[in-house]
Amino acid sequence: LCAMTNHSEPIFATHACAAASDATTLLPELRNWFAEHGRDLPWRAPETTAWGVLVSEVMSQQTPVARVAPQWLEWLERWPTPQDFAAASQADVLRAWGRLGYPRRALRLWECAQAIVARHNGVVPHDVDELLALPGIGDYTARAVACFAFGVNVPVVDTNVRRVYARAWSGRFLAPQPAKRQLAQVGELLADGRGPQTSVALMELGALVCTARSPQCSVCPLHAGCAWVRAGSPAPSESEMAAQKKRVQKFAGTDRQVRGKIMAVLREASAPVPKPEIDLVWPKDDQRERALRSLLADGLVREVARGGEFTLPE
Is 303 annotated in the active site? Predict the structure, then answer.
């Protein structure tokens, strides 16, 4: 009943076989879809090291892939190993991070590299618990590195995976808030041991097809088994939409934007910057001072000898 293609796995025809299938049965078709349509991202190259995978995952948090790719290439050319990166200065790290956003990630990655050198002789560990023990490495990143760098069959759940699972398996248009139970739910899909292939395909499907606002259901490899489609593609309720909007983080006019403007001035400076120059980046005094104080508290900015001049940390 099921058709075969040139790929290594059978894919289900969109006839009686697929109509009787649920989304889990269509996972082989999903993996074949990824083999044909997955983006050619630099860190997906076979020669990418575990360190390269780790850097890509940290950089990609809340940052579009299109912005990450060129930065990642420059970063790995400059610091190809944890040892190379651990020896860099914090100022160089922050300058190289550029406008990727959330610069605390850069310093945490620097601390992570130092811990890899000190605890693991410069070798990125493959065990999830050992990865979680590194500075700046959370639940998602630890599993992503274990899965994509070392082939460990563990669930990797990001925003895209939560959305695909919510629609295809739970019949809900909007993804729920992150929760530990989602690891177990997605983990059930990996019983065949194809965790790395399934996880990256789920992520890519959410990024390219099962998107947040305008899913392209007609070309989705899970379409025939999607619980949301089978339910008639119901729109979310007003209360669900309201809750979703509250979770969306705005940027314009926020302290995060002000912090970014201050950091941009300091990254481009070759000497300590006097306070009056920093004052020019934002007209609201209270917000600008609050942003500057928070940067100092986070260790991203250093005041030079109380002289009213500021620079990146050494």
Answer: no
Q: Are 314 and 90 in contact (CB under 8 A)?
A: yes
Global pTM reads 0.84
For residue 4, what pLDDT is reported?
A: 26
CA angle 12/13/17 to nearest 5° reads: 75
Judge contact between 237 and 65, C-beta under 8 A. Answer: no
* Axis-axis angle for helices 195-208, 27-37 (nearest 10): 70
Positions of E strands within the chain: 273-274, 302-303, 309-311
Which residues sit opposite 310 in a β-bridge?
273, 303
What is the 8-class DSSP label of residue 9?
A: S
CA distance 137 to 156: 14
- Sign of the C-alpha dihedral, residues 266, 270, 272, 273? negative
Can you tell me the distance from the alpha carbon of 92 to that of 67, in angstroms, rounded to the nearest whole number? 19
Instruction: Identify whether the C-beta of residue 57 lies closer than 8 Å to the C-beta of residue 147.
Output: no
Q: Phi then psi for 273, rounded to 5 degrees?
A: -100, 125
- The Cα 254–Cα 260 span in angstroms is 10
Let me know: does 12 contact 25? Beta carbons within 8 Å.
yes
CA pair distance 225, 235, nearest whole angstrom: 18
What are the pLDDT digits (tens) for 290-301?
A: 999 999 999 999
Catalytic residue among 57, 74, 309, 314: 57
DSSP letter at 19? H
Q: What percent of the chain has pLDDT over 90?
A: 77
The answer on pLDDT for 182 being more than 60 is yes
Q: What is the four-CA torsion angle of 117, 133, 70, 36, rounded to 10 degrees?
A: 120
Give φ, ψ of 226 to 5 degrees.
-70, 125
